[in-house]
Amino acid sequence: MARTQVTREEWIDAAVAALIEGGVAAVRVDVLAKRIGITRGSFYWYFKDRDALVAAALETWEQRATADIIDGLREIPDPVERLRSLFTQALTADSYSRLEPALAADARHPLVAPVLRRVTERRVAFIADVYEARGYERTTARRQAIVAYAAYTGWLDLRHTASEVLPELAEGGPESAETLAHLAAVLDVGVPDAAG
């Protein structure tokens, strides 16, 4: 029996799940309506069209996986602790981190491209600021931030595509904590002598 009412957030959550499973092409209103047990008509109470739903899902991802995290990290005064917390949060598997490889695959899509650009710029700028607060010269801090962000995106991609052959990346795997600690050391999250 179909439900008679769902919230806008339920539609967005269903769209995020579809994006994780198959990218933008997987966000199909009729399929999502079936998944959440509602008629397709209820969709139009909240969204003008499918693109509006995709945009809302991307906006939610941007808010929760970037803005909210950065806002929380700004409260940590010690830059080393801020970096540790950032990498721990960023590399912990959750629905939003699982979304990132799918968005990377759709990076040229007109709805995805501007959001990915904004998110990347904001994240790299924040990481660079933290490295600068850590004692790095501005240009070096920016370069270190780019390397750290590349490591992050690579980690997520490998976790998504090769966790069977690289169990060290699998969430909760036997060596994942040690591998994450090694990455933190390589990225200078707590080695003051290496700054600058």
Note down, in words, how this protein is organized.
This protein has helices spanning 8-22, 29-36, 43-46, 50-73, 79-90, 95-105, 112-133, 138-162, 176-186. Mean pLDDT is 89; it is low at 191-196. Helix 1 (8-22) crosses helix 2 and helix 1 crosses helix 4. The protein has 9 helices and no strands. It has a domain at 59-194: Tetracycline Repressor, domain 2. The chain is an all-alpha fold and 196 residues long.
Ordered list of secondary-structure elements with their pairings:
Layout: H1 8-22, H2 29-36, H3 43-46, H4 50-73, H5 79-90, H6 95-105, H7 112-133, H8 138-162, H9 176-186
Helix pairs in contact: 1-2, 1-4, 1-6, 4-5, 4-7, 5-7, 6-8, 7-8
Query: How many helices?
Result: 9
Indicate the CATH class of the domain at 59-194.
Mainly Alpha
Helical content stands at 55-70%
User: What's the number of extended β-strand segments?
Assistant: 0
Order of H and E elements = HHHHHHHHH
Tell the overall outline. Answer: globular
In percent terms, what proportion of residues is strand?
A: under 5%
Question: Which structural class best describes the helix and strand composition?
Answer: mainly alpha
Q: Indicate the mean pLDDT.
A: 89
Would you give the CATH topology of the domain at 59-194?
Tetracycline Repressor, domain 2
Major beta sheet summary: none
